[in-house]
């Protein structure tokens, strides 16, 4: 029984790493869409539309079926949460993990350096840990786990800076990056309560729905999705389908499930791997060099993650 439990926990960790690895690779697909003329808001909205439509279609067709992960069962075709407070909870998840997060993160790139944005956003597990520990005593870290998450954070700094301690301060851009960091921390916090009351599929579908609904004010001010541009170019359509089907639908579903199984703090720590997987992807596809700083930083992240998962 212990062996099976241990193997399952390893599986959760592997899934968390795969999700972060996929998210780390999306910069290439997003960059191509940006260069083609799509705005960050248009890219986000189109990928969330794809993800929501697919999940809604499955929900309406499946009815009462196994979750496929963890043996959960739920009425997938339900439209609303059990109370209006829980529905507001879903709205909060859609904003913090969807519209506001993506708008602030992508907006930061327009006003500050990639290094600043990566460094600030990838340190969100520190903020999430403090925030979640304040509200949930059961999620508080031991001294060993605290040391682990701090060590992983140091590893991120080493990887991102890559031996060049040159940070060009940009109040607006850095503030937007920090806002994205805060958004993801609150998303992790709200997910703790959501996972206690609802199944993973329902939560994820609501995240996409409210992520799209909360974008309506933006498109009232800046109308147009520019869908025709994507349809006319098959390569762009493939990029968008990857972002919608894989990076959004499958990855958000898997990530929310992993947060339920590992706990919000431990799962969120995997964000530390984001710059590592991005650099590995750039090395494999774009032939960028692997430096000694990357190796040292990666070792620190791996050691930190090991300690962070150390149970009391």
Give the topology.
Layout (H helix, E strand, L loop, with lengths): L1 H35 L3 H23 L1 E3 L6 E3 L8 H26 L4 H8 L2 H12 L7 H19 L9 H27 L2 H14 L2 H6 L5 H6 L1 H29 L1 H5 L5 H13 L5 H17 L4
Antiparallel strand pairs: 1-2
Helix pairs in contact: 1-11, 1-13, 2-3, 2-8, 2-11, 3-7, 3-8, 4-7, 5-7, 6-14, 7-11, 8-11
Major sheet summary line = 2 strands, antiparallel
Number of helices: 14
Note the run of SSEs as H and E.
HHEEHHHHHHHHHHHH
Low-confidence stretches: 64-76
Mean pLDDT: 82
What is this structure, in a nutshell?
The chain has 14 helices and 2 strands, in the order H-H-E-E-H-H-H-H-H-H-H-H-H-H-H-H. With 312 residues, the chain is mostly helical.
What are the salient characteristics of this protein?
14 helices, two-stranded antiparallel ribbon, globular, single chain
Write up what this structure looks like:
This protein has helices spanning 2-36, 40-62, 84-109, 114-121, 124-135, 143-161, 171-197, 200-213, 216-221, 227-232, 234-262, 264-268, 274-286, 292-308, and strands spanning 64-66, 73-75. The chain has 312 residues and is mainly alpha-helical. Strands 1-2 form a two-stranded antiparallel ribbon. A hairpin with a 6-residue loop joins strand 1 and strand 2. The protein is globular and about 45 Å long. It starts with a helix and ends with a helix. Mean pLDDT is 82; it is low at 64-76.
